[in-house]
Amino acid sequence: MRKVIVIIILVLTIFQSNAQKRDVVEYQQNWDQQKMFWGYYLGFNKKDYKISYLDNDTFIKVTPSVGFNVGLIGDLRLHKNVSLRIEPGLSSNTKTLAFTHISGAQDSIREVNSTYLRVPLLLKLNTDRLNNIRPYIIGGVSYDYNFSSNQDNPDDNSDGEFRMKKNNFTYEVGAGIDIYLPYFIFSPSIRGVFAINNELVKDNDPNSQWTGNVDYFGTRGIFLKLAFH
Predict the structure, then answer these.
(1) Where are the alpha helices (DSSP H) in the chain?
(2) Disulfide check for 195: which of 122, 185, 218, 226 has CB 3.0–4.6 Å away?
(3) Any bridge partners for residue 103, and if so which?
(4) How many independent structural domains does the chain possess?
(5) Is residue 44, in this structure, part of any structural domain at all?
(6) Which residues are CB-contacts of 161 (< 8 A; sequence separation ≥ 6)?
(7) How far apart are CA 10 and CA 4, in angstroms?
(8) Would the pLDDT of 103 be above 90?
(9) Cβ neighbours of residue 110 closer than 8 Å, sequence gap 6 or more
(10) Percent of residues, the chain, with pLDDT higher than 70
């Protein structure tokens, strides 16, 4: 993920440096006059969990994998430098949880496969356009529906079932850049996503060795989005 971000920054730096050395042709000159437009995005994510405990007797080690995201973009321009944006899409990721205070491989390891329908409502703040680039910052809140949730399953960790809630809320903040190209606009961005609510469904036993001592359990992660308009 870091290597990808570094490569994007280098490409943008080279692009801008070359543009300054010659007369620049401004592409998509009428694009910013639109009141509304649509697009799509795809990209990668790396998500784990923020976990807090009631005391120090419990520790859960989270090992995340790289997941993917894909979705649509709807943008409503409120001002020349401000727009309201909705980005419904799917986000998928797998995490391995190691309950280090529990002995026995079967009881101490849980794999969490999660596929979310995410519906972020965001405010995008742009700078003025500079030749064929336009940096921006973006932030807002999202409703996340967990398709992989087993919230209603009566079995819990004593039967090998680690349960997560279906309906969740997150907030996200990020930054990106619109690059105006001859036939479309390419817009890479990086986002930080953080859960608002506790996503954990606790075990039936309040003294469970898996969840009894967990105070808060919520998603956090980094998203790399590559958007096309």
Answers:
(1) 2-20, 105-108
(2) 218
(3) none
(4) 1
(5) yes
(6) 150, 153, 155
(7) 10
(8) no
(9) 96, 97, 99, 157, 160, 162, 210
(10) 89
At position 98, the amino acid (one-letter code) is A
- Our CA angle for 112, 220, 76, nearest 5°, is 115
Q: Using pLDDT thresholds of 50, 70 and 90, give the confidence band for residue 12.
A: low
How far apart CA 67 and CA 45 sit, in angstroms, is 5
C-alpha R_g of the chain:
21
Residue 11 CA to residue 146 CA, distance in Å, equals: 36
Altogether, the residues listed in the chain come to a count of: 229
Residue 102 and residue 210 in contact, taking contact as beta carbons nearer than 8 Å: yes
Given a contact cutoff of 8 angstroms between Cβ atoms, the answer to whether 176 and 135 are in contact is yes
CATH code, domain carrying 205:
2.40.160.20
What domain range is 100 assigned to?
37-228
Report the Cα–Cα distance between both ends of the chain, in Å, rounded.
Answer: 23
127: number of Cβ within 10 Å: 13
**pTM greater than 0.85 (yes/no):** no
Q: How far apart are CA 96 and CA 61, in angstroms?
A: 8
